[in-house]
Amino acid sequence: MHIPDGFLSVPVSILFWVVSIIVIGYALRRVSRELDERKVPLLAVLAAVIFAGQMLNFTVTGGTSGHLLGATLAAALLGPWAAMVVMTSVVSIQALLFQDGGILVLGANLFNMAIVGVLVGYGAYQLLLRAFGNRRWALPVSGFVAAWLSIVIAALMCALQLAASGTSPANVSVPAMGGIHALIGIGEGLITAGALVFVLAARPDLVAPAAKATAGQKALWIGGVALAMVLAVLSPLASAYPDGLEWVAEQQGFLEAAREPLYNIIPDYVFPGIANEAVATIVAGVLGALVVAAAAYLVAQGVRHRAMQQ
Predict the structure, then answer these.
(1) Residues 6+ apart with CB under 8 A from 243
(2) Helix or strand or coil: residue 188?
(3) Alpha-carbon span 165 to 185, nearest angstrom
(4) Where would you tag: which of 34, 110, 171, 175 has the fewest CB atoms within 10 A of its CB?
(5) How many CA within 13 A on the CB side of residue 172?
(6) H helical segments located in 99-235
(7) What is the DSSP letter of 4?
(8) What pLDDT is attached to residue 216?
(9) Which residues in 128-143 are b (16+ Cβ under 10 Å) and which e?
(10) What pLDDT score was predicted for residue 210?
(11) Residue 65: which H helix or E strand, with range?
(12) pLDDT for the residue numbered 130
């Protein structure tokens, strides 16, 4: 769902830059006042896991693929504002370091994945949890539905941006993006539900505040870092099929509108200078996970310390 430069018009791109800066700026203010210091390392580890998880595209159907977004998972564990920081770190590093998503349209990508994805996922998750009560099965079921919904609504927002830019009419882009991402959302829902079940078993206090921690912070960090590294090592196994947006662009004939990146550092998640592509992908994945974790940690700590000094 990472939009490349060329798919959106300049006015639409600027509009979503402005909106995203305002909303993410507000999220940073909330994080500076509300985020528990003990959760800052969790925020960084979760950013690394989501980055590495997004490298593992899975085949959907009809020659297309999808990957984890992670917005609902982050919101369920950290709340909406910290989750926006996590997703902003992931999406920004993907664009700046790996040329996954354009620079001019980065505001739109942040709006779709870091804002809409988080708010829709968090809102649906909380509503369903209240509706289902404290039943044990409510957690994965709510996570599945909320994650599916977050993917579909974010994809529909992308379709409307394409229509507003004159790239593809709404009566074409909306059903096309909604249909393929309804299928991709099933994978997102299953991964999110599985991750919540795992967290419920390992650290129930993170998803049920009244529960007691069964493992220490150190074990959580080590486990999270290990999971991110495993996902990075597995990244060469990702599906080679185009993702949902690329597939729609091919089918609807506007793929050629995509512009080449302004620069290349680690394009296509292949670290330059390494002949073996699988090894180059693993190196890129490990490096990216570490950079994303460091960025998320520094941003969260920075805004907290600044708020404390004031």
Answers:
(1) 1, 2, 57, 64, 65, 66, 67
(2) helix
(3) 25
(4) 171
(5) 15
(6) 106-109, 117-132, 138-164, 170-202, 217-234
(7) P
(8) 66
(9) bbeeeeeeeeebbbbb
(10) 65
(11) strand 65-66
(12) 93
Torsion of CA 246, 248, 254, 260, to 10 degrees: -10
If one counts every other C-beta atom within 10 angstroms of the C-beta of residue 87, the result is 27
The three-state DSSP-derived secondary structure of 71-110 is: HHHHHHHHCHHHHHHHHHHHHHHHHHHHCCCCCCCHHHHH
Q: Return the pLDDT at 40.
A: 87
The model's pTM is: 0.93
pLDDT at position 201 is 82
Tokens for 50, please give them. 């989501």
Token pair 């079940």 is found at: 197
- pLDDT at residue 306, rounded to an integer: 78
Number of CB atoms found within 10 A of residue 305's CB: 12
Low-confidence ranges of the chain (pLDDT < 50): none
Q: Using one digit for the tens of pLDDT, what is the confidence trace for 13-35?
A: 999 999 999 999 999 999 998 88
How far is residue 19 from each of residues 14, 95, 108, 284, measured CA to CA in Å? Answer: 9, 18, 9, 31
Token look-up 């882009």 returns: 173
Instruction: Write down the pLDDT at residue 307.
Output: 76
Task: Let me know: does 212 contact 204? Beta carbons within 8 Å.
Answer: yes
Tokens linked to 165: 């830019």
Q: Which DSSP string do the residues of 263-279 spell out, in sequence order? A: --SSGGG--TT-SSHHH
